[in-house]
C-alpha cells in the first residue's frame, strides 16, 4: 500500500520550538535561582528554607535539634499556601509537568501508533491484538501504582522518578529496533518496558506537588496532569510527521526518544523533594474500605473499560470514514489540546466549589459525549467531537487523584490509598481496549458496537460518584454538627 506522505513541516517547526523551549528553561533557571546542590538531604534543605524566610535568629536553635526535628518545625517558618516556598513549589510543578508530558503524554498519543500499526507496520495483526500494546502500557502505568505509592510514603520520590525515567527512555529507544510484522518486539518495548517505566514514576511525579501546596492542590495537580495533554499534542504531531514522512518509523521514534530524555533530565533537576512525614499506622481495612473511597474506585474501574476508546480509535475512525488525512492525523492532537483546558479549568473550580461537586458532572458528560463519536463522519463533526470529548475526558482523568487525596483521613497512608485506587483502573485499561477492538472487528469494522460499549461503560458508573458525593456530604454534616451538640 502507498503510505500517506505528511507535509514536511516538522523540521523547521520543531527546531524553532526547541530553541524557544531552551530559552524559556534558561529564564526559568535564572528566575527560580535553582541551587546547584539540589540533591542534598531534607535537613540541609530545611535549614535553607528557614534562612530564606528571614528567621536567622531561629537557625541556631533548629540546628541543635535531632535529625527528626524536621517533623516538629513551627509553621511560622512556612508560607500558609506554600509550605516549602513559592519558588520551589512552582519549580516542582514545572519539573513534574515535563516528566508527565513525555511519559503519560505517550499514552495520550498512542492513537498514532494504533493507526500506523494497523495499516502498515503490523498489518498482519487485528486491531484488537494491536490495542493490547496500548492497553498493557496503561495497565502497567497504573498497576504498579502501589509500588510508586509505597516509595512515595517512604520518601524515595526522586529514586522512583529516576528509575522510571531511565526504564522508559531505554524502552523507547528499543522500540526503534523493532522489525516490521514482529509483534512481540513492539509489545515488549512499548507495552511492557515503557509501561513499567511510567508505572514507577506516575504516583511520585504526579503527587509530589501535594506537599508544596495547601489551598491549591487540585489546581497544581491539574497543571501537572495537563502535561499529558500537551505531550499528547506534541508527540502525536511529531510522530505523524516523522513516521508518515521521509524519516520513517525507526528514526522518527529515536528523535522522539531523544527529546524525551532531554525533558526527563531537566524535569528531575527542577523537582524539589520535601521532607516526608511518616504516615500514621492506619490499618488496611480502615484505610481502604470507607464508602466514598470504594465507590470512587468502583467508578474508576468501570469507566476505564471504555474511556480510552475514542483516544485509541478516533484517528482510524476518521480515516475509515473518508476524512481528509491531514485533518485525521491532527484529530488526536486536537483532542489533547482540548484536554489541557479540561485538566486545568475544572481543577481550579474544584478548589473553590469542592472536588466531588465538579467531578460528578464532568465524568457524566464525558460518558455521554462518547456517543457523539458516531457523528464524526464530517470534518466539522470530527472537530466538535474531539474538542468536547477531550475537555471532559481530561477533567475526569485529572480530578481522580485529587478526589482520592480529599477523601484521605489526616495522617493516613496517602501513597497507599492512591496506589490501590489506580490498580482497578489499570486492570480495566488492560482489558477494555482489546474488548472494544474485538467488538469492533478486524475486517469489517462495526463502529456503532464499539462506541456504544465504550460510552455505556463510561456513563453508567457515574451513579457510584453520585452516591459517594451524597455519603461524603452527609458525613461532613455530621462532623460539623458534633461540636455544637456537645457544647449544648
Explain the overall architecture.
- It is found in: Membrane.
- It is a multi-pass membrane protein.
- This is Major facilitator superfamily (MFS) profile domain-containing protein.
- Keywords: Membrane, Transmembrane, Transmembrane helix.
- The chain has 488 residues and is mainly α.
- It has 2 domains: 195 residues, MFS general substrate transporter like domains (Growth Hormone, Chain: A), CATH 1.20.1250.20; 195 residues, Growth Hormone, Chain: A (Up-down Bundle), CATH 1.20.1250.
- It contains 22 helices and no strands.
- Helix 4 crosses helix 10, helix 10 runs antiparallel to helix 11 and helix 17 packs antiparallel against helix 18.
- The protein is globular and about 65 Å long.
- The termini are far apart.
Keywords:
488 residues; MFS_trans_sf; 2 domains; Growth Hormone, Chain: A; mainly alpha
- Provide mean pLDDT, rounded: 78
Radius of gyration over alpha carbons?
23 Å
CATH class of the largest domain: Mainly Alpha
- CATH topology of the largest domain, which one? Growth Hormone, Chain: A
Under the CATH scheme, the architecture of the largest domain is Up-down Bundle
What class do helices, strands and sheet pairing give? mainly alpha
The secondary-structure element order is: HHHHHHHHHHHHHHHHHHHHHH
Q: Using DSSP, what is the number of strands?
A: 0
Largest sheet: none
Name the CATH superfamily assignment of the largest domain: MFS general substrate transporter like domains
Helix proportion: over 70%
Strand % is under 5%
- Domains, number: 2
Number of helices: 22
Query: Stretches where pLDDT falls below 50 for ≥5 residues?
Result: 1-77, 484-488
The CA-CA distance between the termini, in Å, is 81 Å
Morphology: globular
GO molecular function, one term: transmembrane transporter activity
Membrane topology: Multi-pass membrane protein
Transmembrane segments: 93-113, 125-144, 156-175, 187-210, 222-243, 255-273, 293-314, 326-344, 356-374, 380-401, 421-440, 446-471
Protein name: Major facilitator superfamily (MFS) profile domain-containing protein
Amino acid at each position: 500500500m502507498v503510505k500517506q506522505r505528511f507535509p514536511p513541516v516538522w523540521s523547521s517547526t520543531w527546531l524553532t520550538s526547541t530553541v524557544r523551549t531552551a530559552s524559556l528553561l534558561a529564564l526559568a533557571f535564572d528566575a527560580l535561582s535553582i541551587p546547584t546542590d539540589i540533591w542534598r538531604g531534607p535537613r540541609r534543605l530545611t535549614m535553607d528554607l528557614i534562612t530564606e524566610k528571614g528567621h536567622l535568629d531561629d537557625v541556631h536553635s533548629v540546628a541543635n535539634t535531632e535529625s527528626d526535628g524536621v517533623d516538629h518545625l513551627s509553621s511560622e517558618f512556612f508560607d500558609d499556601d506554600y509550605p516549602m516556598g513559592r519558588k520551589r513549589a512552582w519549580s516542582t510543578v514545572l519539573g513534574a509537568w515535563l516528566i508527565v508530558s513525555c511519559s503519560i503524554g505517550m499514552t495520550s498519543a498512542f492513537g498514532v501508533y494504533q493507526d500506523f500499526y494497523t495499516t502498515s507496520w503490523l498489518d498482519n495483526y487485528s486491531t484488537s491484538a494491536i490495542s493490547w500494546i496500548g492497553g498493557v502500557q496503561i495497565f502497567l502505568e497504573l498497576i504498579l501504582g502501589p509500588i510508586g505509592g509505597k516509595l512515595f510514603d517512604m520518601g524515595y520520590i526522586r529514586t522512583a522518578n529516576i528509575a522510571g525515567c531511565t526504564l522508559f527512555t531505554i524502552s523507547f529507544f528499543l522500540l526503534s529496533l523493532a522489525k516490521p510484522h514482529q509483534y512481540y518486539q513492539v509489545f515488549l518495548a512499548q507495552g511492557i518496558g515503557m509501561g513499567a517505566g511510567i508505572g514507577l514514576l506516575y504516583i511520585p511525579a504526579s503527587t509530589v506537588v501535594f506537599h508544596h501546596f495547601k489551598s491549591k492542590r487540585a489546581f497544581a495537580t491539574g497543571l501537572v496532569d495537563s502535561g499529558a495533554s500537551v505531550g499528547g499534542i506534541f508527540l502525536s504531531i511529531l510522530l505523524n510527521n516523522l513516521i508518515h514522512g521521509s524519516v520513517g518509523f525507526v528514526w522518527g521514534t529515536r528523535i522522539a526518544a531523544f527529546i524525551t530524555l532531554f525533558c526527563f533530565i531537566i524535569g528531575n533537576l527542577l523537582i524539589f523533594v520535601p521532607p516526608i512525614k511518616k504516615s500514621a499506622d492506619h490499618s488496611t481495612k480502615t484505610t481502604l474500605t470507607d464508602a466514598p473511597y470504594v465507590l470512587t474506585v468502583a467508578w474508576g474501574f468501570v469507566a476505564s473499560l471504555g474511556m480510552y476508546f475514542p483516544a485509541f480509535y478516533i484517528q482510524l475512525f476518521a480515516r475509515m470514514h473518508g476524512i481528509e488525512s491531514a485533518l485525521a492525523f491532527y484529530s488526536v492532537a486536537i483532542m489533547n489540546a482540548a484536554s489541557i483546558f479540561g485538566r486545568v479549568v475544572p481543577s481550579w473550580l474544584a478548589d473553590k466549589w469542592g472536588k466531588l461537586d465538579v467531578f460528578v458532572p464532568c465524568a457524566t458528560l464525558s460518558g455521554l459525549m462518547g456517543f457523539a463519536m458516531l457523528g464524526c463522519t464530517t470534518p466539522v463533526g470530527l472537530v466538535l467531537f474531539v474538542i468536547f470529548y477531550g475537555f471532559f475526558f481530561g477533567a475526569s482523568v485529572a480530578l481522580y487523584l485529587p478526589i482520592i487525596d480529599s477523601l484521605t483521613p489526616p495522617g493516613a497512608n496517602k501513597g497507599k490509598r492512591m496506589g490501590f485506587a489506580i490498580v482497578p483502573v489499570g486492570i480495566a485499561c488492560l482489558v477494555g481496549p482489546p474488548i472494544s477492538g474485538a467488538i469492533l472487528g478486524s475486517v469489517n469494522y462495526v463502529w456503532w458496537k464499539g462506541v456504544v460499549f465504550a460510552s455505556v461503560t463510561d456513563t453508567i458508573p457515574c451513579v457510584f460518584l453520585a452516591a459517594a458525593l451524597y455519603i461524603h456530604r452527609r458525613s461532613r454534616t455530621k462532623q460539623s454538627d458534633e461540636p455544637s451538640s456537645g457544647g449544648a
